[in-house]
What we know:
Strand content: 15-25%
Helix content: 25-40%
Strand order of the largest sheet: 1-2-3-4
Number of helices: 4
Distance between the termini: 27 Å
Order of helices and strands: EHHHEEHE
Number of domains: 1
Structural class: alpha+beta
Low-confidence stretches: none
Largest sheet: 4 strands, antiparallel
CATH architecture: 3-Layer(aba) Sandwich
Number of strands: 4
Radius of gyration: 16 Å
Amino acid sequence: MPLKLQLAEPGDLPRIVQIENESFVDSPLTPIRFLNSKSAESQDANVENLLQQWQDNPTSRHVIVIDTDLNDKIIAFARWFILIGEDVKYIKTDPNERQSAPGSNEVASRELFGGLLKIRVRILGRKPHCRKS
C-alpha cells in the first residue's frame, strides 16, 4: 500500500467531503450538529462552501493522501491554516464571523465552534501560527 502525500486540487473537494462525512457518521455530535441526516444537496453545498473558502482565504492549505494500489484513490486529507506575516489579517476573533457548514444546526455549531474560537483567541490572539482545521 504505497501512499503519496500531495497538495489537493479543487476537483478533490467532493471526495474530501465524502471522507469527512463518512468519518463522522457515528459521532454522537453528528445528530446534534446536523438535525436532519446529511442530504446529497447539503453535501454538494458543502463542496461549494469549501471551494469558496479555499478561494477567499489564501492561508488555507489542503493536502491529500492517495493510495497508489487503489488507482490513486484519496484515502485521507487535512486542511491547515498558515497564519504568518500579512496573513494574520485572516485570523478570526469574533465567533459571529464563523460560517456554519451547509445543513448544520446553526445554534449547536455556533456553541461548539464559537467556544473553541474563544479559547484559541484567548491563547493566541492575533499571533502568527499554524493550525489544523
